[in-house]
Amino acid sequence: MRGWLKATIGLVVLSGLLLGADRIAVGVAEDEAADRMVKSGRMGQRPDVSIEGFPFLTQVLSMKLDDVRVSSDGLTVGDGSRQVALHSFKAKLAGVEVSDSMNSATVAHGTGSGVISYPDLAQLLPPASQLLHGTKLPVGSGSRLSLSYGGPGKVKASLGPVAIGEGTVHNDGNTVTVDGFRLSSLAGMIAGMTDQQIEPMGFTLDTLPAGLKLAVKDGVTPLPEGLQLTFEGKDVKLLG
C-alpha cells in the first residue's frame, strides 16, 4: 500500500510539473508570436495572442498549432492616403504551420471581424462638396456627410440638419462601395431637384490585419455601432 501511495504522489507531482512547463512554454510562445507579427508588418500594433488547445508542447512537436486567437483594439485600416481606427478586432486562425525557429508561419484558414465607426467611415468617402456638386445644398469645401445606421444593410446620410437619404453598403474584394442614395424630399427641395440620385462612392482598403482580406460574401455589414468588417483568408502568410 505504501509503495502504491508513493507512486501515486510521484505521478501527481510529475503531472503538475509537466502542466506547469506546458503553460510556461505557451505563454512564452504567445509573447514571441505577438512581437513577430508586428515586426513582419501583419499587425500595426502588438496584439493579444492566445494559443488554444492542450497540451501545447505536443503541438510544438508537430510544428502545427490548431487554434490561435488574435485580438487588438488599437489597429488602423485605410486606403493608402487616409487611416481610421478599427475597433474590437478579433481573429481565429486555424491550422497554423510554423518553422522550427518561428521565423515563418502559414495559416490554413482564418476568419475575423472589426468595426469602423460611422464618423470614421465618412472620412474614407469623398467630401460632400464632390458628391453633391451641382446642387444648391450649402456644402463647404471640406465638409463631409454624416453617416449613421439605417437598419439592416443600410446607412443613413445627412448634411448638417438636412437628411440626404438611405443607401446600401457592399464590397467586391477589399473595395467597399456605398450607393443607392437619393436626395430626400427636403434635400431635393433645397437643391432644386427631385429624386436626384447621388453617384456611388467607395474606397479600397490596402492593408488589413493578420494578412486577411474582406470576406467575399457579406464582408461589410452596417450595425448600430458602426460598419462591421468581416475577414477571411486561406493559406495566409502570417510570419516571414
Descriptive key words:
disordered N terminus, alpha+beta, eight-stranded antiparallel sheet, 5 helices, 240 residues
* CA-based gyration radius: 25 Å
Number of helices: 5
User: How far apart lie the N and C ends?
Assistant: 56 Å
General shape: elongated
Query: Strand share of the residues?
Result: 35-45%
| Assembly category | single chain
Structural class: alpha+beta
Description:
It is a single chain. The protein contains five helices and 13 strands. The protein has 240 residues and is an alpha+beta fold. Strands 1, 2, 3, 4, 5, 11, 12 and 13 form an eight-stranded antiparallel beta sheet that branches. A five-stranded antiparallel beta sheet has the order 6-7-8-9-10, with helices on one face. A hairpin with a 4-residue loop joins strand 3 (75-78) and strand 4 (83-98).
Layout of helices and strands:
Layout: H1 2-40, E1 48-51, H2 56-62, E2 64-72, E3 75-78, E4 83-98, E5 105-116, H3 118-124, H4 128-131, E6 146-149, E7 154-159, E8 162-172, E9 175-179, H5 185-191, E10 201-204, E11 213-214, E12 220-223, E13 226-239
Antiparallel strand pairs: 1-2, 2-4, 3-4, 4-5, 5-13, 6-7, 7-8, 8-9, 9-10, 11-13, 12-13
Task: Write a brief structural summary.
27% of the residues lie in helices and 40% in strands. With 240 residues, the protein is of the alpha+beta class.
